[in-house]
Write a structure and sequence with these properties.
Length: about 650
């Protein structure tokens, strides 16, 4: 592995300063690789200077076993294949038992005799003799026996000190139970004979892939607590990360990457529950072991398809969809096979699955590398986190094959990946929050500006309306006074009648002009007074027809009054015989209610009917429009024009 790292360092050094890899990112990669190298070499380096088991013996008599020191009982143990031997079997045996040696950690199915390998399924005895320092005599010591996917019994000086499952000489007699254990023993002399019976009829390898450890009671308890605390920390972290991303998905269902990452976190949580210190068995001691192993393999085989789905959603342009779906299909087949197959076939799927995992990991690495080259957002963070995970997965595969002597680091690599992705997602959410906050402020300013413009327009319209009021009222008054002046000299009695009618009309105008809405009945009365004044002035008989109005009908003041005054100005002549009509009806259209007002002027001249128009720039009509907009903003319409018998105006007002 060190040669590979040197090769990577040399390749990076040979690149030009203008390379596409940023210097800061290059530094992070170098640090990452160095850190992983140190982790991989940790076990080997710390073991230097510590004693080993040589030919079935380990001498610690000259070794000071201080606190925090853990001795790994690694080396060449005595090995007796297909024999379950006890202490008495080795005492005064003549001739002595023929022994072989086996290196632990290691598997007996990898050991050969006469050019042939031992059968994986079977039973055997491992034995070693340990010499302790005299200071530990009659002091309690502790052994940590890791999970081995094998059933075992462990004896110290003939005393059974630990047992996992039931060791038998056949599959029917053997019951699997693979929980790692911490056991205690008080030696009464400096010599300890350790015998371990091992039986395997399920796993692919027979033996121990991790070291049996020895230390003081306090040290081993502390070590066990640290390992369990680390498992609990990783489980709790994965649970929170999974729940957090799933909650975000419920809020942003269009972002499926959140869902895939949540499921991937959950699958990794299940993996951690069913490995390491087997926290699931601690919670549920009677849990069926065969199902525990099936769940473990399911978590291993379901992680790649969800991870690749997540990466594919984040970087869709860099992901080859056919390759992605191929890997998803392959691992789904593995998962289904694990569920339906017999337990003895479960571990047989491991080797082909590991090969596909390696190719899948390289494919994801290729996707992230392309994303970095194209300078996608957060691509470097994804790549660095994934490189760490990829190297820990590679370490675990080599460790599981007993090629390197390290530890299982994939859960830590997974946590680093999750932490980096959660950090990047939090950064993205924070950026989104500030963007939304900025947009809200801009929106508030826009709304404030629109509101200000709207109020300014209203104020302008009201000023314009007041101007029209001041224009219309004097116009009508001047015309009426001119008529009174004429009749004062010609017929004083008639001028008095005109003056009385005019005074009553002006009284009503002053009363209603400042109001926004008045009852239609008041508007009709005002129209009648005005027609009465005009009858006296013009000495003509003007008629007014009206429909029956409801007492609740309201209308802006001086609307019909202005129309009648305009009719006298523009339609009346010596030969004209004017009459007026004001009609109202309620109509419903598209589930909306309207009040329709028809104002008609009849002059009894036969002219062609023309369609109503919306044109008109007269002062009177503009006054009416302003009045309607003031009372019914955006909910009215006005059309006018010549009709068959005269002139008409149609006003439509929406009620709801």
């Amino acid at each position: 592995m060190n040669q590979n790292f040197r090769y990577h360092f040399q390749q990076m050094k040979n690149q030009s300063p203008t390379s596409w890899i940023p210097p800061s990112a290059l530094t992070h990669i170098l640090l990452l690789l160095v850190a992983l190298t140190l982790i991989s070499c940790t076990t080997e380096s710390t073991d230097k200077g510590l004693p080993k088991v040589i030919d079935g013996k380990m001498d610690l008599s000259a070794f000071y076993l201080k606190n925090q020191t853990i001795i790994k009982l690694d080396g060449d143990w005595d090995f007796y294949y297909e024999k379950l031997l006890l202490s008495e079997d080795f005492q005064k045996r003549n001739p002595p038992l023929q022994k072989e040696t086996i290196t632990l950690p290691g598997f007996w199915n990898e050991k050969q005799k006469d050019g042939k390998s031992y059968s994986t399924h079977g039973f055997a005895t491992f034995r070693m003799q340990l010499t302790l320092p005299k200071s530990l005599e009659k002091s309690q010591i502790s052994f940590y026996i890791p999970h081995a996917f094998n059933t075992y019994r462990m004896y110290a000086n003939g005393i059974l000190i630990s047992e996992n499952g039931i060791v038998g000489t056949s599959a029917s007699e053997t019951k699997e139970h693979w929980l790692p254990k911490l056991t205690f023993f008080t030696p009464h002399s400096e010599f300890i004979e350790i015998i371990v019976h091992v039986a395997n009829y399920q796993a692919l390898n027979s033996g121990f892939r991790q070291s049996i450890e020895l230390g003081s009671e306090e040290t081993m308890i502390q070590t066990k607590q640290i390992r369990l605390a680390l498992d609990i920390f990783l489980i709790a972290s994965l649970f929170v990360i999974s729940l957090y991303h799933f909650t975000l998905f419920l809020l942003r269902k269009n972002d499926r990457s959140l869902l895939y990452f949540s499921i991937y976190s959950c699958v990794s949580l299940v993996y951690k529950l069913t490995s390491g210190e087997f926290f699931l068995i601690i919670l549920f001691p009677n849990f069926e072991w065969q199902w525990l192993i099936k769940i473990f393999f399911l978590s291993v085989y379901l992680a790649p398809p969800f991870l690749i789905s997540f990466i594919g959603e984040v970087f869709p342009e860099e992901t080859n969809q056919l390759t992605k779906h191929t890997f998803q299909f392959i691992f789904t087949v593995f998962a289904i096979f694990i569920l339906v197959c017999d337990f003895v076939w479960v571990e047989e799927t491991l080797l082909p699955a590991e090969i596909f995992m390696l190719f899948c990991s390289i494919f994801i690495l290729w996707i992230l590398s392309k994303a970095v080259i194209k300078k996608r957002e957060n691509a470097w963070g994804f790549l660095l986190g994934y490189i760490f995970l990829f190297l820990t997965i590679l370490n675990d595969i080599l460790f599981e094959k007993n090629i390197i002597k390290t530890e299982v680091y994939a859960p830590i690599g997974t946590f680093v990946l999750f932490f980096s992705q959660s950090f990047l997602l939090s950064k993205k959410s924070s950026k989104l929050y500030f963007t939304v906050e900025k947009q809200n402020k801009e929106l508030e300013q826009t709304v404030f500006l629109k509101d200000k413009i709207h109020h300014t327009n209203i104020h302008s319209k009201r000023m314009e309306l007041e101007l029209y009021k001041k224009t219309i009222q004097p116009h009508f008054l001047l015309n009426s006074l001119s008529a009174i002046r004429y009749w004062v000299s010609e017929n004083p009695e008639k001028s008095a009648l005109i003056l009385d009618s005019l005074a009553e009309e002006l009284h009503i105008i002053l009363k209603v002009a400042s109001k926004q809405l008045i009852p239609v009945s008041e508007e009709i009365n005002l129209c009648k007074y005005h027609i009465g004044v005009m009858k006296l002035r013009m000495e003509k008989d003007y008629k007014l027809k009206i429909s029956r109005f409801e007492s609740t009908d309201m209308i802006p003041p001086l609307v019909f009054h202005t129309l009648i005054e305009n009719a006298f100005t523009h339609e009346d002549s010596e030969k004209a015989k004017l009459s007026f009509g004001i009609f109202m009806k309620n109509i419903t259209e598209n589930e909306k209610s309207y009040s329709s007002y028809h104002f008609l002027v009849y002059h009894h001249n036969k002219e062609k009917e023309t369609k109503p128009t919306t044109a008109g720039t007269g002062t009177g009509l503009e006054y009416i429009r302003l009045r309607l907009e003031e009372s019914y903003p955006g909910k009215w319409s006005l059309t006018h024009g010549k009709s068959k018998k005269g002139y008409r105006v149609l006003i439509l007002i929406q009620k709801n």
